[in-house]
Amino acid sequence: MFKAIKNYLFYRKIINKLKPTLLTNFGVKVDMLSRLYTVFTIPEREYKELVSQYQEHSDKLIEIEFKGYKKKLDTYLMKQGLTEMYGIYLEERANERQFMLAITYKHLDVLFWGNISRLILISLLVGMGIGGIILLFI
Fold first, then answer.
1. In the chain, is it the N or the C terminus that has fewer CB atoms within a 10 Å radius of its CB?
2. Where are the domains of the chain?
3. Is the sign of the CA dihedral 86, 111, 24, 16 positive or negative?
4. Residue range 20-64, pLDDT digits in tens
């Protein structure tokens, strides 16, 4: 468990350092929990050309474009030392031109631990507030 947390902190440090590059080169945003997310969009002109030239196979060609994008992103993250540290959290087609992609640290449920830490903080604050009120009346 501690090794997973240590590796997550390393992952988060690298991701935070790469934020500007990820945004400018790949259009990938990073949230508070160091999850990477983006919406991959085929430009409208390119989409119309694919549909007009390859009507029956246009969907497969668009998926191939998306897989190429994912491969470039994957290669970049591996070169930065994040091999085997991340996994795809969400990959789904939004519409005929767009794909949603979210990547997260895969060895720890970051969302779960983020919510637990919030609950602990809220509990402490409420407990301190109630304790303070009790002390006022003693």
1. C
2. 2-107, 108-138
3. negative
4. 999 999 999 998 888 899 999 888 888 888 888 877 777 888 888
